[in-house]
Automatic annotation (TrEMBL):
Cross-referenced PANTHER family: GNAT FAMILY ACETYLTRANSFERASE (PTHR42791), N-ACETYLTRANSFERASE DOMAIN-CONTAINING PROTEIN (PTHR42791:SF1)
Pfam families registered for this protein in UniProt: Acetyltransf_7
PROSITE patterns: GNAT (PS51186)
Domain (N-acetyltransferase): residue spans on this chain: 87-218
Lineage: Eukaryota, Fungi, Dikarya, Basidiomycota, Agaricomycotina
Any GO MF annotation of the entry: acyltransferase activity, transferring groups other than amino-acyl groups
Protein name, per record: N-acetyltransferase domain-containing protein
Domain of life: Eukaryota
Membrane-spanning ranges: none
CDD domains xrefs: NAT_SF
Organism: Lyophyllum shimeji
InterPro entries membership: Acyl_CoA_acyltransferase, GNAT_dom, Trichothecene_AcTrans
Amino acid sequence: MEQNTNITIRRLTNPADPEVKQIVGLLIAAFGGEDGLHNFLVGGDTSLVPTKFEANVRATLAGGEVYVASLGTEANDIVGAITCHGPGQKPNSTDEARAANEVFLSKLPDAHREWWSEHLAPRVEQLANDSLGPGAKMAQYYVGLLGVRPEHHRKGIAKALMRVIEEKAKPHGLSVVLETSTDLDLLIYKRMGYEVKGQVTLECFLGQAPIYMLTKTPGSQLFTR
């Protein structure tokens, strides 16, 4: 794997719109058409993918933490990003976060918005509770999104972004937890030392899609790789 020593990682605070748009663009490029879960989340309407990712980023800025990997100081130098909520930073728990998410949710058909509240949310909560124990997910460091522009894959950028969150968790004896849905992502995270703790299957009119819960525990042999 090629390591890029010119990459810098910083926490994004009070970003200008061009930076947010750059992150949205790289997330779209990173996930491409390979992630069936995101197709589920937008109800098959791919025109909503940018709105969804922008809602994710803005909601996390309001109630969590966003870190970016950059090749320089300009907005278009951003090549990777990660969103995270630390202990007690529950997603969608602030007015600003809810408002950001509502921009996306308001564009969904009523039936699919109902699917979000009556199927998706309970299934994801069930996955967390069955895999980690009730309430345990939000007591750890939770990674919501991780993306790197395809032309910068295999340069250690994703691992470096994950390491930022892992190093925040380690001194407190906490874990890093995340969900993913593709075989490729499972392989990547396992190579980083993450373990699969559980799985549920989502169902909607588009078919079925799996979601896996993974964790990495500070202090373990895998964590120090």
